[in-house]
Structures are given as C-alpha cells and as structure tokens.
Design goal:
The protein is built from 16 helices and 13 strands. By secondary structure, the protein is an alpha/beta fold. The strands form 3 sheets. The chain has a 7-stranded parallel beta sheet, sandwiched between helices. A 3-stranded mixed beta sheet has the order 7-10-12. A 3-stranded mixed beta sheet has the order 8-9-13, with helices on one face. The radius of gyration is 20 Å and the shape is globular. The mean pLDDT is about 95. This is NmrA-like family domain-containing protein 1. InterPro entries: NAD(P)-bd_dom_sf (IPR036291), NmrA-like (IPR008030), NmrA-like_oxidored (IPR051164). It is found in: Cytoplasm, Perinuclear region; Nucleus.
C-alpha cells in the first residue's frame, strides 16, 4: 500500500480549513490518499482535540513565525493555505504571511499549494474601487506565488451565504419586515458560496484534478443569485414571514452609517461599501462563468435555498 501523502491544512478549526478536513476524511478515496496535518494555534482546545480523534495530526504553529511554518510544511505534498485579514485588518501583514507560506512551500518542495485567493478589485475596476484591501492583498499573494514558481491552484471563495441570514438579511424596524438592505441594484448577480459546507468540496476537487487545475483559478460558488432572487427564495420557504419581505437599495451614506452604528471604523466602512458597490458594475469574479470550476466537483454545492432552509437565524419561521 502506498504511503499517504501529507496534506497541510491551515485554519484547521476554522470555517474553510475545517470544511477541507471534513470533505477529505468523508471520502474513502481521499482519506486513503492523504494524511492530514492541521495547523492551529492551540492543539489542546476541544475543536482541535476532536480533529485529533479523527486521525488528524494537529500541529501548533503561528502563521507569523517562519520557523514554525517551515516545520509545519516539512514533508508536505499539498498545502491548503488561508489567511484572516479581518483579525488585524492589515493588508501588509496578510501579504507577508502569504509570501512566507509561498517561500517556505517552495523551499520544502510542496507539490501543490492551494491558496485561498480573491480578485484584485483595484485592478479589475481600473482604480475606481481602490480600498477593498481584503481582496487585493490576497490577489497580491497569488501573483507572488505565480512569480516564485510554486505549483499552485487558486481557490476563489464566493460571497458567503452566511452574510445574509441575521446579517444583511434581517428584520428592520419600525415594521420588522425581513429586509435585505445593500448599496447595489436588486438584480446584481452575486456568486453565493457556503464556506462551511462547500470549501472542502472544491478543494477536494482541486486535489483530485491537480494536472487540470495547476496555475488556474477555481471559482468556488454555487450560482449567481441576485438580492431579488434571495427575497423570492425566502418567500417560497417562509410564506408567512416572507409576505412583507423586501430588498431595499440604500445609499452609500446610509450603508456606511449602519456600519458606523455597529462600531466599525471609517476605513472598514469604506472597504465594505466598495466591496458591495463593485459587484454590479464589474462582477465579483469579473463576470466569469462558474461552469468550468464545477467540472471538478463530485458533490453538488449547497444552494441558497438549502442554506436558507437550515439557517439558524430563520429557525421557527413559517
């Protein structure tokens, strides 16, 4: 029997990393092919212990420590790397983390680096929206990975479905109607993605179709749905609650004002506004089709309807 190849998963107890581990272990073929080394800050925590019980080698490593990352990548065949811009909201730090992973992956002879990336919004929009740092920083790392020549595939997560229930889609006073209020037209196509449920489906497809996807981007989203589509789905699932559900296109000032009330600083307000605003005119994925990315899947991705049906924020609705 061939020796298992080591797959290193960053953020092992997080949404994306946890989904990767679940998908690999749930498939007898990939579970037989790969030994998973999960990177986490504290392997003694319950979430990490649960992974250890499933056969995952949980390793403590600080993503800011080159020595610890090098040790974690030793002997690895493949790496799924994800960074968290929102932890420090520092694009320079995120880019340094990504460059370190790329350099060390090359030094350690990694055969397949899967980088959780996003499009360069500043470049895509010709400088019109220059402040979407959490996209542009990941895109800069993607370009660095290409430049240094690490064998890589770029996993491009779509707009998280989890942003809607209880977040952008909630009951608003004074009427308490279920409302989506965003600074975009109602027909804006949004590539929705269930990060917790489907990251692993796409990454498993990337790993099992390595030759097909090396050097390419895989657009990880189920489908393009508009805010109007989301309202229609909600009405279908919950006719009583959805009777008065609606979408409201709000102004830049109103959107930023709502974020300010939630305690977000001006820099983040502007970043999130531009994140919403660029989608209608330029497209989240530059208006690219999802069809080719779906060809590598052997499990269907989660639909927005299914996600809504199981969303905790919608529990008990009729």
């Amino acid at each position: 029997m061939a020796e298992k190849k080591i797959l290193v998963v960053f953020g092992a107890t997080g949404n994306q990393g946890g989904s990767v581990i679940k998908s690999i272990l749930s498939d007898p073929k990939t579970a037989g092919d790969f030994k998973i080394r999960g990177i986490t800050r504290d392997p003694s925590k319950p979430n990490a212990q649960a992974l250890t019980a499933k056969g995952v080698e949980c390793v403590a490593a600080d993503i800011d420590s080159k020595d610890q990352i090098k040790s974690a990548l030793h002997g690895a065949y493949a790496v799924f790397a994800v960074t968290n811009y929102w932890e420090k909201m520092d694009a320079g730090l995120e880019m340094q983390q990504g460059r370190n992973i790329a350099d060390l992956a090359k030094e350690c002879g990694v055969q397949h680096l899967i980088w959780s990336s996003l499009y360069d919004v500043n470049k895509l929009t010709g400088g019109k929206f220059p402040n979407v740092e959490h996209f542009d920083s990941k895109a800069a790392v993607e370009q660095y990975i290409r430049d240094v020549g690490v064998p890589a595939t770029f996993f491009m997560p779509g707009f998280f479905m989890s942003n809607l229930p209880g977040g952008s889609f909630r009951q608003l006073p004074p009427s308490n109607d279920w409302t989506i209020a965003l600074p975009m037209p109602a027909n804006t196509p949004i590539p929705f993605f269930d990060a917790g449920g489907d990251t692993g489906k796409f990454v498993k497809g990337i790993l099992t179709h390595r030759d097909k996807v090396l050097g390419k981007r895989v657009l990880a989203a189920t489908d393009y749905n508009s805010p109007s589509d989301a309202i229609a789905i909600f009405k279908e699932l919950f006719p009583k609650a959805g009777a008065s559900a609606k979408f409201v296109q709000i102004s830049k000032d109103d959107y930023k004002g709502a974020l300010a009330k939630a305690g977000m600083p001006e820099k983040v307000q502007e970043e999130l506004y531009e994140n919403m605003a660029f989608m209608n005119e330029y497209g989240y994925y530059g208006k690219d089709s999802l069809a080719e990315s779906h060809e590598i899947l052997d499990e269907k991705p989660t639909t927005l309807k299914t996600f809504f049906a199981h969303a905790k924020a919608f529990d008990g609705l009729e």
